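Feature request, filed as a ticket because there's no other form

It would be nice if the structure record came with a short human-readable summary line next to the tokens. Right now we just get the raw output. Example of a typical job, pasted below so the devs can see what we mean:
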Amino acid sequence: MFKNLLVIKEQLPYDHHVLQFAKSLKFLGAEEITLASHLLPHPEKRHDKYDPEVVTKDLEELKEMGYTLESMDLEGLPVEKVHDLVEYMEPYDSLILAGAKVSSIGKRIFDSEFAYELIQMPSKPILLVRVKEEEDGSFTSIPQDGLNEMSHVLFPTDFSENAYHAFTYLEKMVEKGLKKVTLMHIQDIAKISPYLDYRIIEFNQIDRDRLDALRKRLEEKGDVEVDVVLEIGRPFREISRAIDEKHFDLVILGRQGKGIMMDLFIGSNSNNLARRAKTSVLLIPRADEK
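Raw output as currently delivered:
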């Protein structure tokens, strides 16, 4: 799983943290890394804390771990072509990694981070490595040490076809040794109340059965502890609250792939969480977009 990693390097201080995150994916089967350099369009905006020697050391450590390294330049390459770079790879074998700070609603249309351009035209899984800028200008990733078998993964689902496809990636992770998962479904109160309130007991039973079926599928894949959460509310709000309270290491989401204008004016839970969740996010495109 995720044998081939395409790691976006932007000459930013958190390039180091993205590479450290890539290093941690060895337990999932990562073997090859293509370091794709994407220079900022305005050189004067490059961060003064970027240290190329740190990145060089990271690359040496990756080689010592047995990774095969290649490099390429993305300058002048349209965003949609970046996904084509991994198009030839087998399903579940490829992953794009890019660092991304939390994006507020007000600045979404002006986001300059390449990661948020990439997620507008998804054709391959993208892992947004969440980076946090501290008061002193330094950066850390969330989680700080990347992923491992004991990482706690959150899988919110709406039981759509797209969500079920994303779930197959979670199954693969459990097969590789992941030990802790929380399955979550938030019944959208805007779609239930007030006209369908009388059916809430029925909905609870249906959704509980669906979550239990997913739990059993995971338990058949490996030695994993699975928590199940079923609540009613606003999906984005409740999922965000759970992330803040439980400090999940990763959120796995199915990505609808509506494009930037649809996401801006209509919005989607996956798009909002990808930009605003205070942890790293793995976005899985629809099966027909792979």
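Something like this underneath would help us a lot:
Residues 257-267 have pLDDT under 50 and may be disordered.
The chain has ten helices and eleven strands.
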